[in-house]
Amino acid sequence: MMQYPQISIPHRSQHLWRYTPWKRIHPTKVTEMPSSDSIEFSSGQDSKMDDSDEIARSFIHSISTSCKKVILKDETLELDLRCSGHICSGELNIESSGKSTIIIRLSGDAGWTGLRIHGTVEGKLSMATINDLSKDGHFLRCEDWDVGRDSELEFATLSAGGFLNKSDLRVDLTNKGAQIRAGIASNGYASRHDDHHVEIKHSIGHTDSSLMMHASCGDSSHSVGTGLLTICEGADGSDAGQVFRNLLLSEKSRAEAIPELEVLADDVKAAHGAASAPIDANQIHYLSSRGLSPDESSALIVEGFLMDAFRDIKNEEVVSAIRTRLLVHLECLMNG
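Below the sequence we write its predicted C-alpha cells.
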C-alpha cells in the first residue's frame, strides 16, 4: 500500500520546506497522483526500493515505474540519466565497494523530474552529480547514504539546470571511521530557484564530515542552502564542519544560508559558517584592464568561486567532470 496519500503536507515552519514548500515542488495538485514516464538509465539492473514515511521520497516511490541498481567494485562508471515527458521519475540503488567512482549526469527536457537515490559505501566512493536539465524544468532530488566502517564518501554536485530545484540529501554515519566530504556548487541565473537541504548525522563517534556549498546568484535568481549537522550523544571523537558561501552578482538576486548544529557529545570538533557578498568590483576592473569583457570577467570569477567548493574533493576524475561541464555552462550563458 502506498504511504504517500496518508502523509500530511509538511508545514513551512519546518526548515526543510520553508523556502520551497511541498505544494510548490509537487508537479500537480497535491491531492492528485499523476502518472510518470521513467528516467532512462544508461546502465543498471532492475531493482526495488522500500517506501518511505518522508513525503518527497514516498511520492517519488509511488509514481516511479522503474528502479535500477548499479554495483561498483574498484571501477569507474559514467551514468547518464535521460529525463523526458511531462513528468519523469525513477529510483536508483548504488552499492559500492573497493575504490570506485561514479559520474551521474541528468539531462533532458522533462517538465518535472523526480530522482530518489539510496547508496551504500564499503571502501571509498567518489561521486559527481551534474544537474544539466532543461532550464525551464522542475527537479526534486532525494538521497540517503550509508557509509561503512572505515569507509569514505566523496560527494560533489554541480547544479546548473532546471528552473525550480529542490534537493534533500542525508547521510547517517553509523560506523566508526566513516567519513564524508561533500562539495556543492550552484549557479543561479534568470529567475532560477535552487534549494539544497543537507543533513549529516554522526550516530557514532570517531566519524568525520565536511560540507562546503558555494552558490553564485545572478539576475533575480534565488539560492537556498540549509544544513543540519547532528552529533549524537556518545559520539565522542567526531570531527564535523559545514560552510555556506554565496556570491551575489546582481541587486535582485537572493541567497539564504542556514547552517545548524546539534551537538550532544562533549569531546568533538564542530564548526559552521555562512557568508554572502557581492562580486568584487576591483576584480572585474583588474580583469577588464587585461582585455576581458565584463561578462568574461564575471564568468571567470564565478568559475573560480564555484570550483572552490570542491577543494576537499581528491578524485581528479570527479573534479575534471565538474569543471568541464561548468565551463560549457558558463560559455552558453555568455553567448545567450
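The two ends are 48 Å apart (CA to CA).
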